[in-house]
Design brief:
The complex is a heterodimer of chains A (about 160) and B (about 110). Chain A is an alpha+beta fold and about 160 residues long. Chain A has 3 helices and 5 strands, in the order E-H-H-E-E-H-E-E. The chains are: A alpha+beta (about 160), B alpha/beta (about 110).
Amino acid sequence: MPMIRIALKSNHRDMAWHDQIQRTFEALAIETGIDGMERILLPMAIVEAINNIIKHAYQLANGQPILLEAQHSHQTLCIELRDQGLPMPLPLPDGKMTDAAAESGRGWRIIRAVFPDVDYERINNENLLRLKRPLGEKIKHSNPDQTSTTPPQTTNH
Amino acid sequence: MTLTHQQQSGIDLVELPQRLIMANASDARSDLKNIIEQGDGRLVIDLSATEYMDSSGLAAIVSALQAARTKNGDVYLACMNDTLRALFELTQLHKICQIFDDKESAIAAFS
């Protein structure tokens, strides 16, 4: 399985990591045949997952480690994000917008639109968020309101 | 001020940057609120230069919308590219914001 590995430091004022994620995953989307709007949404969803780590796990503290690993086969793309910040509150958001006027909740909506399969583990004081999507076919329902999402999972070690 | 701001026909007109993301969204949010507080709450946001937004950028727009409506005003969006339009639809912002093809139409809609 081809692998991408990116080590970042949290910095909510930095645009450089943003560019790196954008370039890397736009290229991966092309390589893996993800097209149309999903090609644009793939890097966006990963940016949103990293934003969540910086904002919530690290509470905007700079210089904290984030490790991203991406692997894909012909059938599946799997992104793993690791950080050493605060645990994620459970259950994970389902991406449904019950109030269109709410300020928050849109990051998870984008994540769930691209990755129908999301799970989370807390292992040895480290967060591991795993985002998966099938390749070779479009996600049939890119609107999370219409998608039956995988129930959030967690394992405490 | 991170935004380009001017007045046209008594309407505040703001141009957002190329990217509105976590790195600059909090500054943009403050600037938009200041403009709304100092004006009469009628704001047109010109997105012709904006290629990309993340959820922080979207939240800054929602915040501006709430501030404007508190003053019985509104925020109209103009010149949105196809990517942003699809993002607005996915995140349901198209349900709460009025979107115009060009800023002249948005300004005229306030008249």
